[in-house]
Structure formats: structure tokens, C-alpha cells
Amino acid sequence: MAINLVDTWQCWWTLRSSRDPEEMAMFHVSTEANVSGQLAQPRIDAIFDAMVAYWTSVCLTDFIVLGNELEMVHINFWDTTLLVPGWRELSRREFVAGTHVSAGDPLPNQLAIAITLKTLETVPGNRQSRYNRFYLPYIAMTELAAGRIPLGTRQQILASLETLNAAIGANLTTGLLVVSEKQALGFGTIEASVGDVMDTQRRRRNQLTEIRTAAMLS
């Protein structure tokens, strides 16, 4: 069932690299906003708890270490009162430095694991509206299969995501959504998938100050 954009929330994680302090990363998923008849704050708190638990569970998988610190989680809502409607922060939970640190030795800074969410519902418009994607940054793989992400790792990532989906979808609300701003709608019935090839994020690479070494060639 389609949900209006104004009835959806974005759930954001903000992370700081534990190896390179000038680099940070953010990623988000979407869910249904607070439903009628419920108090908003208990749902917000429950979502924040689920987000922290997800970050922790991914960090504790057999093959992944997120070499970073979770600085903040926050929720955005679609604000129609703005001159140009858009996302605005509803609530945040910040953490004292050192509270949620996962010390690892990540692979090169711009590498990430891409997770694709696809709705199996009928979506009007173009095919792209059926998909959302987010990226797990600061990956340190203790085992690679010929340079690719092993099956066991991908299965653990999806298991952690299913736990998140169930947690934030409690109390008569929908779990994760695929949201299309173009359609101004959110859709449930989600299939999640993870490929075995590492992805890259150019915007994270661009945050780094590169030190270059040069030599004259004879």
C-alpha cells in the first residue's frame, strides 16, 4: 500500500572515521511516520534504539568491522510549510565521544557495501522509483573471496537489516519503505539485496586531503 510522502520519515546515521578524522559519512533508510493515535516520542525513541542496535549488529558480524564512531542518529520529516517543501530534522540523538566506537582498519576510504531496497508493490512512473539504496561505509573485511564480498557476510548484513525492519515496523506501523520524492509516495513490501562487489563513494574520497609525492624523470 502506498504511503504519502508527508507520512514518511528518513532515519539517518552520522559516522566519523576513526582512522581519518577529516572524513565523515552518512546513510539513511525510510519508514512510516508516527501513526494516528500514537505518541510520537515513544516511536522516535524506539526507532533510535533500533538504529543503534543495527549499527552494533553490523559491526559484530564475522567479517565486517566498521572502523568508525557513531556520532548521531536523527529523523527527518517532509515539511510542507517551507517555501519549497523538503526534508527537515524532527529529532536527534547525539552520543558522547567514545560511546559507540568500532575500532577497525578499514579498506580504502571510499569503499562501501551497497544495499539495495526494492519494493514489490506496483509503482506508477519509471522503474527507478521502485528502488532505494544506501551504503555501509568504513568497511574492514577480515576475509574476502577472490576480492569479493563473501556469501556469509552478505547473509549477515541482510539478517541485521531484517531485525531493523521488524523493530522500526512495530506498533502497527510499516517497516522499511522505498520512497520516491518524484512520486511523493512511499512503498512497503521490501526485498533487500547485497552484491558481492565493493562499491565506491566519490564524495567521501573528496573529503580527504591528499598528500602527493613527485619526482622529476630523467
Any overview of this molecule?
The structure is a single chain. The chain has 218 residues and is an alpha+beta fold. The chain has one domain. Helix content is 19%, strand content 37%. The protein has helices spanning 40-59, 151-168, 202-205; strands at residues 3-4, 8-17, 24-32, 64-66, 68-79, 86-94, 101-102, 111-119, 131-137, 139-141, 176-180, 185-187, 190-194, 199-200. The strands form 3 sheets. Strands 1, 2, 3, 5, 6, 7, 11 and 12 form an 8-stranded antiparallel sheet that branches. Strands 8, 9, 13 and 14 form a 4-stranded antiparallel sheet that branches.
What labels would you give this structure?
about 220 residues; eight-stranded antiparallel beta sheet; 14 strands; about 20% helix; globular
Distance between the termini: 68 Å
How many H/I helical runs? 3
Gross morphology is globular
Rg on CA atoms, Å:
19 Å
Write the SSE topology:
Layout: E1 3-4, E2 8-17, E3 24-32, H1 40-59, E4 64-66, E5 68-79, E6 86-94, E7 101-102, E8 111-119, E9 131-137, E10 139-141, H2 151-168, E11 176-180, E12 185-187, E13 190-194, E14 199-200, H3 202-205
Antiparallel strand pairs: 1-12, 2-3, 2-5, 3-11, 4-10, 5-6, 5-7, 8-9, 8-13, 8-14, 11-12
